[in-house]
Specification:
322 residues; hpI Integrase, Chain A; 3 strands; 2 domains
Length: 322
């Protein structure tokens, strides 16, 4: 594990994983992002290769396993800006991608400065994150959601209906849905125990549609399936995988006459949040709790949807720009 990076990066990742309890996907992103960062820094600082000459192939072929703490101590803010210059102008990464990599860099150098106390000065403390414009979430309308549910058919109809019903009603993440076990369903109070990002636990209420869909699916679920714990299983009898769910959602999106390039399981999560806010009048704090957002600012994007629709309607007025 982590055999393509130096010890100081490996120790940081283990700290983030075991002490800070970051999710596996976050650890994986930190691994890739910091590996590429130090590969670039080695080419730039040790091999003295100019920015214009560095490319992805060179970075992928660069071995950094022998880098040590002394090298980390030589890294300055200007070096990091050179790397960001490469990401922006040579690799042409999107601002969101650069922001993610900057977050990994800042976390690492903060760890080296304050936890390990190896660095006297943190070179990344003044590293600025690209300004990100807030994009409104794509979501299905109420009619489109109904048509999507009506499009479900075939031998896995009950299972697929249950999955999409939970997406559209509970706003679950894909990773949360495939991880559901029988023991997570609490019949006594009609709630579902969900393990979200960072292994944070929350309880989601199951409305009548969800209760009905779960009951009907369990009635036809293979009782001799290999995986006895998992709620949703594949045709092989094992826990259903993320890719299987993605392909299943895409199939029904097409059958419902929608654009498969625009919609995914995550867009169904957006749909649930938007419909709850728009039609159910769910307040922002309740929505935050339902979706499992750490910060309410993440949830606030759903409150802008109606305002944006009003704006678009006014701009389409034929008297506009007269």
């Amino acid at each position: 594990m982590f055999d393509d990076i130096p010890n100081f990066l490996r120790e940081f990742l283990l700290y983030m994983q075991n002490i800070k309890n970051r999710s596996q996907s976050t650890i994986r992103e930190y691994h890739y992002d910091l590996r590429d960062t130090f590969r670039y820094l080695k080419l730039y600082k040790i091999d003295k290769i100019k920015l214009s000459q560095i490319n992805d192939e060179m970075i992928n072929d660069t071995d950094i396993t022998t880098l040590n703490i002394e090298f980390v101590k030589t890294v300055e803010l200007t070096d990091l800006y050179e790397y960001l210059n490469y990401l922006s102008n040579i690799r042409q990464d999107k601002p969101t991608t650069r922001a993610r990599k900057i977050a990994a860099i800042k976390s690492f150098f903060n760890y080296m400065t304050h936890k390990q106390k190896i660095l006297e000065k943190n070179p990344a403390v003044e590293l600025e994150t690209p300004k990100l414009g807030k994009r409104l979430p794509k979501y299905l309308t109420l009619d489109e959601s109904v048509n999507l549910l009506k499009s479900i058919e075939g031998k896995n109809e009950k299972r697929d209906t249950c999955i999409i019903t939970l997406f559209l009603n509970c706003g679950l993440r894909l990773s949360e849905l495939v991880a559901i076990n029988f023991k997570d369903i609490k019949d006594k109070d009609n709630t579902l125990r969900v393990i979200g990002k960072g292994d944070k636990e929350r309880s989601v209420y199951l409305n009548e549609s969800c209760q009905k869909a779960i009951k009907e699916y369990i009635a036809v679920r293979d009782k001799n399936a290999k995986d006895r714990d998992a709620l949703f299983i594949s045709e092989r009898g094992t826990r259903i995988g993320k890719r299987t769910v993605e392909m299943m959602v895409k199939k029904y999106i097409v059958l419902a006459g929608l654009d498969p390039k625009k919609y995914s399981p995550h867009k169904l999560r957006h749909t649930a949040a938007t419909l709850m806010h728009k039609y159910g009048g769910v307040d922002i704090r309740s929505l935050q709790q339902i979706l499992g957002h750490e910060s309410v600012s993440t949830t606030e994007i759903y409150t802008h949807v109606d305002n944006e629709q009003v704006k678009e309607a006014l701009e389409k007025n034929p008297l506009n720009n007269m």
